[in-house]
Automatic annotation (TrEMBL):
Gene3D superfamilies: Creatinase/methionine aminopeptidase superfamily. GO terms for molecular function: creatinase activity. This is Peptidase M24 domain-containing protein. InterPro entries: Creatinase/aminopeptidase-like, Creatinase_C, Pept_M24, Peptidase_M24B. PANTHER family: AMINOPEPTIDASE (PTHR46112), XAA-PRO AMINOPEPTIDASE P-RELATED (PTHR46112:SF2). Residues 24-242 form the Peptidase M24 domain.
């Protein structure tokens, strides 16, 4: 008997989802939006990051328990950062207390029967503190919008990354981009990885197909001591259709929606 490496065929099989899987992932995206709304509800001056994260996590767990009464309630959480703590994709939650003018990072991750979804947004508390903060936020939202348009069947992952890189280059911001622009969703966890063949990176030549599920999540990280310091990130999940995509994330993004007034 000779061992056979089935990793690549298995990965390719997982990259294209069944109708049942897509319906399940849509439920996860719905619960992400509930977690995001709970973050906004909890944000106020003097509230600790940990309290915001706990409130959001509890809201998602309760909705999973209600919607999937036989599911195991494991590995659902929200990561939430404020101020300069936003300067990384998934920085640890701390007890730092929110202040007016803080840049905020919302990261909601429900896990339902081994299927993982995510919602990530940039927000500000009370007001955007400088023109540079607003400029950076708007640039990243522009990149995000273009990325959403590019996700369609027949497009190569590397070509999406290349075009979005050019947008950052126009504003001299490419050096502040941190990782790929998106990746496959489905059977996934921070503990056991995802399909490496479906990443929106310069080195991935995979062609997008209908029924793939992928994120668009551009992020720039501006260092402490620099004008507009902090992390700016938007994240939607999309189902690729026959002629485009379906954005299954409902939580809005951008300055017109996510300056939290209390």
């Amino acid at each position: 008997m000779e061992p056979v490496d089935i990793s690549i065929p298995c990965m390719k099989m997982r990259m294209v989802k069944s109708a049942e899987e897509i319906a399940h992932i849509k439920e996860g995206a719905r619960i992400c939006d509930i977690g995001g709304a709970a973050v906004v509800e909890a944000c106020d001056v003097g509230v600790g990051e940990h309290e915001v994260a706990l409130h959001s996590t509890q809201a998602m767990v309760r909705e999973i328990a209600k919607s999937f009464p036989h599911a195991e309630l494991m590995d659902t959480w929200t990561w939430f950062q404020s101020g300069i703590n936003t300067d990384g994709a998934h920085n640890p939650v701390t007890s730092r207390r929110l202040q007016k003018g803080d840049i905020l990072s919302l990261n909601c991750f429900p896990m339902i029967s081994g299927y993982y979804t995510a919602l990530e947004r940039t927000l500000f508390l009370d007001h955007v503190p400088s023109d540079r903060h607003m400029e950076l936020w708007e640039i990243n939202c522009k990149v995000h919008r273009r990325g959403l348009e590019l996700i369609r069947p027949g497009t190569r992952c590397c070509d999406i990354a290349a075009e979005l890189n050019e947008m950052y280059l126009e504003h001299d911001l490419l050096q502040y981009r941190s990782f790929g622009y998106g990746h496959s969703f489905g059977v996934l966890s921070h503990y056991y990885g995802r399909e490496a063949g479906l990443e929106l990176r310069e080195d991935v030549e995979t062609v997008l197909e209908p029924n793939m599920v992928i994120s668009m999540e551009p992020m720039i990280t501006i260092p402490e001591g620099t004008a507009g310091a902090g992390g700016y990130r938007e994240h939607d999940i999309l189902v690729i259709t026959e002629d485009g995509n379906e954005d299954i994330t409902g939580f809005p993004f951008g300055p017109e929606h996510n300056v939290i007034k209390k």
